[in-house]
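Repro:
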Amino acid sequence: MKQLEVMNFLNEVSSVFPDAISLASGRPSEKLFEQIDIEKCKNVFLSHYANKLDITLEKAHTLLLQYGPSAGIIRDLLSVHLKNDESIDAEEQDIIVTNGCQEALTMWCLNELKNPNDCVLTFDPSYIGLSGFVEATGKAVFPITYDFTTKFNADELSSCLDEQIKAVKSRGFNPKAIYVNGDFNNPLAYNMTEEQKSALLDFCFRVGLQIIEDNPYGLFSYLEHKERTMKSLDKHNIVYYIGSFSKSICPALRVGYLVVPKGASDKRTQLVALKSLISVNTSQVCQAVVGGYLLQNQVSLLPGVQKVLPDYKRQRDAIVAALDTHLSFDQNITWNIPQGGFFIVLQLPISVSEQDVYTCAQEFGVIIMPVSFFSLDEEYNSRAIRLAFSNLDGTNLTEAVKRLAGFLKQRIQKSESN
């Protein structure tokens, strides 16, 4: 399925079968929203904003409701938050506030993919927001494959990527960057180690590639040790870092940001100019909510995230227990046990198609997400499905897996008889 069609397809399935339990959508837990007092957040930020600009609260409120600077009004707080939570040293001028991560990706693509042969690489399968947008603009995006779950060897990584990049260049294309979603990856739920990230950084620097690091799930680790981001490890200044508050505060705010590499002032100027043409500026009211939330939590997302992490871990454990119980009928069905994030991935003995998604929803009352929907090479990933456990309690997860088991039994039996 084309990347442009995936979200419309899933929305259609969800609307046609509203009573089906959805294991397709990686929505955050709604318990997260209980921490947010929007009006209080706004007022806390207004006091900060007035003090920063040395103006009255009334003037600050007026400025908040006006058009504002395209680069954003909470960059000072984002700089502190990145240092506190991710050990990322980003100056205020390195940060551009965006309308979610999607606008950040859009800005990068429009600014960097200017020539007909410019292209971007992505580890496949990966988030369709990038590949779908590149596809929409008529530019090229190429899949790069590497299994980060196996025993790691830096030379093997270099050799594998070198070969694939040479194949892209042999077709006349000029790769500008590689897109990486390495922390509790969507859709495969793996977590790159710091050793793997450092090796990839060194490789990309050697071959002249930028890195786009998209990190919506990195704070949601169930382990005591949290792997560092590529941006915090980047001694080559090649990483564009993308963050969002959709998973850590709430999706409706549509506030994200792009951090440009240090010293890339020309790129930053170009990106801000592009943003002014795309959306003028990010809602300052929404920025105020994010800013106030950070100020109430020591300019950190960790206090809020840590309140919901036990719930996510319980939900992870609940879906794993349900899979152990209901999918033991076929030893060829396997799954990973993620150490963070929102997803778990099933490997199957059969391929799963678009029609199977409809059949599963209509006849068994559960909506699934084939990994092939995320892939530029659909055949390669046709025997896997991604299950999202982040927005369902244990009871619903158990019921959803029970229904999924019914579908898989029928589908496998049919495949065997054919």
